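Q: Entry one of two.
A:
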Amino acid sequence: MIPNKKVLDLMSTDLKTLEIPGNRETLLSAIKEFRLSVFPVIEKDSDNKLVGMVGRSEILRKPAETQLALLMSKISDWPTIKKEQSIVDLIKLMNDMKRSKIPVIEGDNKIVGLVSISDIIWKIISNDKSFNEEIKENFSDNISVLWEGTPANVAAQILLHSGQEALPVINEKGLAGIISPNDFLKFADVRNFQEISTDAEVDATETWDSSSVLIISDKILIIPSRPVIEIMSKNLHTVTVFSNLSSASQMFRSKKIDQAPVVDEDDHLLGLLTNWDILGAFIKHIS
């Protein structure tokens, strides 16, 4: 059962915000530094007045924009919640709107906190001992995967079009690793077109087309062409298809992860279990 708690009891007040006026380079730097996917955007010199949310997806959807005010999703298009509302309200809102982070506001859109889907999984669902639904009925089995030798620039395009938050990586022995946007960003480089044409260190065999770079106006985000085995996460945490979502959510909390490959008794890859899979099953459970 869900404890009788409010959003106030769950929200984080250690906010990493961006300001407008601001630019895309500030966002890219923040993503790399804090390893976060979404940031609240506030009005400069205001009392934390929230005007929007921005992250990796906005960069990909609006590659020609350079200003945060044009990149961000306006707060009128993003769900918000009050700190006095219930955890049930929060869970249903997050699942309905499919937003992994929801800002907590008061007054004239002053942001006072932020709640993520991980907060719900780690702090609420993982502690519900009655939540025993099986993984086999609640995971994503229609997923994209990568071969370990796939060039990272190609892998980035596959991830972008798959709609997944991560891609399992396989080799001839089976599951070898997993790769997420943050893995790409650790090795990505932002350069001017002029720098690329004059940089003596650039391999003459590289082709700077849509399969190797993300074009961003007069700058490009270069994804290296090295194989994904060199940049993927090899420290794998898997769940078995015969386990339950309660134990999976506890593992998500202890390992601080938001997805895990699902395997059978022989460690064959069957799919991917994500925070969204767990949240959706939990809503059915409490209903």
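Q: Entry two of two.
A:
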Amino acid sequence: MSSVVLKEEIDFNTLMEKVEQRLHKVAVTHSRTMGPLASHVIKAGGKRLRPLLVILSGWNEDDSWEPVLDVAVAAELLHTASLIHDDIIDYADTRRGLPTINKLRGNQTAVMAGDYLFARALTLLSRESTKDALPFMVESIQAMCEGIIEEISTFFDPAVTESDYLSRIDKKTASLVTACCGAGARVRGASQEEVDAYADFGRNLGMCFQIIDDILDFTSDEETLGKPAGSDFSQGILTLPVIYLLEHPDWKEPIKEILAKHSCTKDDFSYVQEAADKTESIHRSYCKAQEFQEKARECLHFIPTTPVWPILNKLTDMVITRKK
């Protein structure tokens, strides 16, 4: 995603390259024991959306980039750590097309690898120059934990509502995106009004991003996603397309019967995909994502027009049109 954004008039390649270099230095070369594990997940790549958002919200026209870059690296470390822990909870074998740490080395090692990355992130955020970003990131970690517990407590539960789902993804996904935007602005010394506007932009962008992610779990394939399609449903995680299906009079009971087994075969998922195709559940999910996309755009009215403003605006389109 960021590679497309970087084609704008401002060249962020140098800044993003510095983020990659610092990720390697902070997480990989710091420890001989944990370095190879950190290298495995970091070199797998990713969209790097979160560090990009820190850089965009922390944009300044002088050379005081050091604190912003540290916060950007910390954001990616926190995100990566949360993915490692997610893979343990989800019994995932692959992530970004590569074997997960829990698959390669077992759950105990994977837990410690995730904790190590959390610790390295907090080390960066505890510096004098970055301490103003710490409350944003700590709050997001707390929210992510709450969101994951909410998710676990509703596995295979057909009573999950749209409101339950939105609360969960707000905590589990959007909270860190919110923190990235708010922290970047805060570290560069923006006014409280501007910090709030960036944070609100991040929240709505994150909500849109996650809804699209959940749609792609239904409409894409393993090669494109880098993980098995239908992985959420097979684990009992009910996302918006399924929640809308459970509201449909013709499909509600058959879907409930599948969920009652507390397991999901490939045939089961194919059946649910077919149901989604035959109903408005995917379309309704896109419409909900578009609602948050529009809210993100509205937030831009309260963000000063700087060279990064058009890129933020373009991001609102990219998160909803992405294919992986």
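A: Comment on entry two: Residues 1-8 have pLDDT under 50 and may be disordered. The chain is about 70% helix and 0% strand.
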